[in-house]
Design brief:
Blueprint lengths: L3 E4 L8 H20 L3 H10 L4 H9 L7 H10 L8 H12 L3 E6 L3 H11 L10 E3 H4 L7 H12 L5 E5 L7 H5 L3 E5 L23 E3 L10
Parallel strand pairs: 1-2, 1-4, 2-3, 4-5, 5-6
């Protein structure tokens, strides 16, 4: 029998810091074009001074400023991400799809930013358009019932009783799946690269996942 398996995007299907680095490289390249400075040096300054990296780059370049911080933020937000889905993740998604599971993507953010990531990662191969739930499109983020309401309705329509949510963020990923009787699964940040640290013991009980895995291959044990 098929299950509904919903995934978070950032720091679950790829590392969000790869997206951040991609944006910083784009901003550094634009600054280099405008000033003749070395793009690699600018990238290192921006990265080392996060979250005030753009200000640090402008201080390094001196007056007159080639652009404003707001200009740099817009370049960052508008850039085409240089990110890839790793082979293991793609293989797991393909196998779950082959087995007939209903795959959904639940992510907070705007269609502009999250959509750019989804296209760069090629996730349309695994998730039907109606099963990609972006909070600014659906009208509710993970702190609301909206994503799980939509997923539960589709599970009922398709006669699916087993529902899983796979994520990483203890602050918001597992609360509503837990309350709705889903199996919540946290992908462990074994490399320590996630934007948000994972401290299960510090999280309230309702926010904790029901199970923890250290690689996505473990999902292939789902019946």
């Amino acid at each position: 029998m098929a299950s509904l398996i919903a995934f978070d995007l950032d720091d679950t299907l790829y590392k969000e810091m790869d997206y951040v680095a991609s944006g910083y490289r784009t901003v550094a390249a634009e600054l280099a074009r405008a000033t003749g400075a070395d793009a690699r040096t600018l990238f290192e300054i921006i990265s080392a001074n996060r979250p005030l990296g753009f200000e640090a780059a402008l201080e390094y370049l001196g007056e007159p400023a080639p652009m404003s911080v707001d200009d740099m933020i817009e370049i960052y937000r508008a850039h085409t991400p240089d990110i890839q889905l790793d082979g293991e993740t793609a293989g797991v998604l393909a196998e779950l799809q082959r087995r007939g599971h209903r795959l959904m993507l639940i992510t907070d953010g705007s269609p502009r930013h999250q959509g750019a990531k989804i296209r760069a990662l090629g996730l349309e191969r695994f998730f039907a358009p109606e099963d990609i739930l972006i909070s600014q499109v659906t009208g509710g983020d993970k702190f609301t019932t909206v994503p799980t309401d939509i997923a539960d309705a589709r599970a009922r329509r398709d006669g699916i009783s087993r529902r899983y949510y796979v994520g990483d963020n203890l602050a918001k990923d597992f609360l509503w799946p837990n309350r709705r009787g889903w199996t919540s699964v946290m992908l462990l940040d074994s490399a320590g690269r996630n934007v948000f640290p994972q401290d299960i013991l510090a999280a309230p009980a309702e926010y904790r996942p029901k199970t923890v895995i250290d690689n996505l291959q473990s999902l292939l044990n789902i019946p």
